[in-house]
Specification:
6 strands, 33% helix, 25% strand, globular, alpha+beta, Aminopeptidase
Length: 165
């Protein structure tokens, strides 16, 4: 992203050190809404994994001014071998309750797309939960394609059993 993008309500920009406490709180809120555990992702974890020398996550935030964040989009680099192109997986999109329905989510997705294109990528993909029809309607309104997929994962103990030391 070349510089901050503006919406009517916010400025979209990369996460900064001063944003970490609000960003971590928003991650916890989204995790709780989805029934996931909270508390694993801390300010220290965010500092290391987003702002550290080897970032594992790219984060754009919606800055509402006055030191307040209104939302974020979190991206992981991705690569599609069938098309031989880079892109990104948007693993988190969140807008705080008091800021919803103001175009902020759309601006975050647009800025994420711009970041992908500027880095030579060609796609942005994400998943949505079946119990999120509002989110799916929003994604449809963006013009996003839908695919029926089954998502599989090996996490923690499952991964350790498959691939022990």
């Amino acid at each position: 992203m070349e510089g901050p993008a503006m919406t009517g309500a916010c400025t979209i920009r990369p996460l900064a050190e001063a944003d970490l406490p609000d960003f971590v709180a928003m991650v916890a809120d989204l995790s709780a809404q989805q029934g996931h555990p909270t508390g694993h992702f801390s300010v220290e974890t965010a500092r290391r994994d987003v702002l550290g020398p080897q970032p594992r996550l790219m984060v754009l935030v919606a800055d509402a001014g006055g030191g307040r964040l209104a939302g974020y989009a979190a991206l992981n680099p991705a690569y599609e071998t069938s098309w031989a192109v880079a892109g990104a997986y948007m693993q988190g999109l969140y807008v705080a309750r008091g800021h919803r329905r103001r175009g902020i989510a759309r601006a975050l997705v647009a800025a994420a797309g711009q970041l992908v294109l500027q880095s030579g990528g060609a796609y942005l993909w994400w998943t949505s939960r079946p119990d999120n029809p509002e989110g799916q309607a929003f994604y449809d309104a963006l013009g996003a394609s839908r695919e029926t997929l089954h998502v599989h994962s090996l996490s923690f103990d499952q991964l350790e059993r498959l691939a022990p030391d």
